Structure formats: structure tokens, C-alpha cells
Amino acid sequence: MVTLVFNSCLFQQVWLAITEDGVNVTRYTAWTLVDNFEWFDGYTTKFGLYEVDFEDPKRKRTPRASAKYYKEVIRTHTFDVANKNNYDEL
Q1: DSSP string of 5-69?
Q2: Are 25 and 79 a contacting pair, CB within 8 Å?
Q3: Cβ distance 7 to 66 under 8 Å?
Q4: What's the rounded Cα separation, in Å, for the pair 55 and 27?
Q5: For residue 85, what is the DSSP state?
Q6: Nearest in space to 4 (alpha carbons), one of 75, 55, 61, 63
Q7: pLDDT tens digits for 14-66?
């Protein structure tokens, strides 16, 4: 859920930068799509849009609530979708 809240706040701040400060934002890239290796935490810190099962030899990927939220942001062209839908962290 933390990642979902972070992404929502991030989109709001980007919107404010565009509308209030006149910043010319033309693209956005999610910082991390999948869980990965962190230098200080190894594979224990998980914050990607997709959870990776490192115990599975095929490294199964499961979308988190933040991935579903990001999908809705892209689909609806608005960042205010969290209030309209129920996103349970997987």
C-alpha cells in the first residue's frame, strides 16, 4: 500500500509542477517495474509494481495494487483513481 500512496502523491506533485509552475513534463517512467536486488537490502526490500517470487525458478511476477493503480492512471488519463476503486495490496 505504501507504493500506491507514494505513486498517487508523486502524480499529484507532477500535476502541480505542470499547472502551477509551468514545468513542461512530457514523459513519466515508473522507477522500478519489478522487485529487484538492492545493494543494502538484497532481495528483502520489495517495492516494484510487480512482486517477483524469487523462490520460483521462473520468477513469477504478480501485479501489486500500485501496478493496478498505474494501469488505471494510464487508461483514464487521471491520477485521481484511487478514490474510485478499491486497491488491495497483493
Answers
A1: HHHHHHHHHHHHHHHHH---------S-SB---BTTTBTS---SSEEE-TTSTT--EEE-HHHHH
A2: no
A3: yes
A4: 35
A5: S
A6: 63
A7: 889 999 999 999 988 777 777 676 778 777 777 778 888 889 999 999 998 88
Cell of 90: 497483493
Residue listed under C-alpha cell 517477483: 52
What is the rounded CA–CA span in Å between residue 4 and residue 87? 9
* pTM check: above 0.85: no
Element (H, E) at 10: helix 2-21
Measure the CA–CA gap between 5 and 22, rounded to whole angstroms. Answer: 24
**Residue 84 cell numbers, joined:** 474510485
CA angle 35, 81, 13 (to 5 degrees): 75
